[in-house]
Design a protein that fits this description.
Layout (H helix, E strand, L loop, with lengths): L1 H12 L4 H15 L3 H12 L4 H29 L1 H18 L6 H16 L1 H11 L6 H29 L2 H21 L22 H22 L1 H7 L4 H26 L5 H18 L6 H29 L5 H30 L1 H28 L1
Helix pairs in contact: 1-12, 2-8, 2-9, 3-4, 4-5, 4-6, 4-7, 4-15, 5-6, 5-7, 5-9, 7-15, 8-12, 8-14, 10-14, 10-15, 10-16, 12-14, 13-14, 13-16, 14-15, 15-16
Length: 396
């Protein structure tokens, strides 16, 4: 049994380029300090004493900045390459994170969160483009999974440490987050070189545009709906945990459990299941697990029960997200990959923008139970759209 397990692990991790491993190391360092997003809603409501509605608007400003940053990041990446975009995004974002404790005004925080997330989110399309340039078609999904492994290893550390720091002072969370961003920026600056393939002559006939790719545009709708359902567990779910008498340390451990599971399982799981069925079926299965999760919440109480909920969410993420990235990469070409990656990132940023207001207003007006059923419907709609795209693809 042991030799088989060793061969399985070796097969899952072999064949990836040095640059992909380096990008994953940068992501690990960066995400190990990413703890702000998990505690931001609690910080705004319980430390700064903003209302639920005000908190929703501020988180929406954070999401709106992400939307803007993803769009500009993709455009600039296609023109200048991924290296400068990743470096400046991390460096400036790190400095801005450390300034958050100095701001107390509602209006200033709204503006500041927009600017901060604009710089931070420009990193994502550049990072996805870098992975594509340093991967082969046959190992791209595993390259993405390795990068996600680094993200989730970081997330397993960040929320747990953040929960501990929050019990001392929330200010430490922002400082640590900023330091890790800056550290990751300088690793990129000194170790990773810009690589740009020579794209085909850009004419209307040869350049592939995501804006004219109908299948991809429908996929973006499904991506947005899935992101709505997924982000809720990390943006506003901590508010529900607090009403269920969980403390900050327990909330941090729940977020960390998600990171540990994905980091431990996803690479090997993707290696075993890739090619067994279409990417559409994997994405639909991920959405189905979110549907099950939301229908289960009304019956759950206590830390152990919510830990089981996190397990379901984690498997949803592992089935859906690597293959969503694969679909995005397969639809693009070398001359437009940044724009395809940007639109994909923007679908997630749009969800991050609209969800806080949508969720907090629903909670304030109708209660948490109404939010669970609404999110379950969104997960069901995701399944319908993805399966429809899959059926049409099979008919071509």
């Amino acid at each position: 049994m042991f030799p088989k397990s060793k061969a399985l692990v070796k097969g899952a991790y072999s064949g990836l380029s040095t640059e992909v491993w380096l990008l994953s190391l940068v992501m690990l360092i960066n995400r190990s300090g990413t703890m702000v997003i998990f505690f931001l809603s609690v910080y705004l409501t319980q430390v700064l004493n903003f209302t639920l509605q005000q908190t929703g608007v501020m988180l929406a400003c954070f999401g709106a900045g992400s939307f803007t940053g993803a769009f500009l990041g993709g455009r600039i990446t296609d023109k200048l390459g991924y290296h400068p975009v990743m470096f400046w995004s991390l460096l400036i974002g790190g400095v801005l994170f450390m300034l958050i404790p100095l701001l107390k005004s509602y209006l200033l925080l709204c503006i500041f969160f927009f600017i901060l997330s604009s710089f931070s989110e420009a990193f994502r399309p550049a990072n996805m483009t870098a992975i594509a340039f340093h991967s082969k078609p046959e190992n791209y999904t595993r390259s993405i999974s390795l990068n996600r492994l680094a993200i989730n290893l970081g997330f397993s550390v960040g929320p747990a440490v953040g929960g501990i720091l929050a019990t001392i002072s929330y200010h430490y969370i922002f400082i640590v987050n900023g330091i890790t961003c800056i550290s990751a920026a300088f690793i990129i600056f000194f170790t990773l070189k810009n690589k740009r393939k020579s794209p085909p002559q850009k004419t209307q006939a040869t350049t592939k545009s995501p804006y004219r790719d109908r299948k991809y545009l429908f996929f973006l709708v499904a991506s947005y709906l899935y992101a709505l359902c997924f982000f809720q567990f990390f943006l506003t779910m901590p508010l529900y945990y607090k009403t269920m008498q969980l403390n900050e340390t327990q909330i941090g451990y729940l977020m960390a459990l998600n990171g540990v599971m994905v980091a431990a399982i996803e690479m090997i799981m993707v290696y075993k299941i890739e090619g067994k069925t279409s990417v559409y079926n994997f994405i639909a299965l991920g959405a189905l697990l979110l549907l099950i999760a939301y229908l289960s919440i009304p019956f759950l109480a206590g830390f152990a029960a919510f830990a089981l909920l996190v397990v379901i969410i984690s498997f949803s993420e592992m089935f859906a997200m690597p293959f969503m990235n694969t679909f995005m990469n397969n639809q693009s070409d070398d001359s437009s990959r940044g724009q395809y990656a940007a639109l994909y990132s923007m679908s997630w940023s749009l969800a991050q923008t609209t969800l806080p207001v949508m969720a907090t207003q629903t909670i304030a007006g109708y209660g948490f139970q109404a939010l669970w059923f609404f999110m379950a419907f969104m997960a069901f709609a995701t399944i319908v759209i993805i399966k429809s795209i899959g059926r049409r693809a099979e008919q071509v």
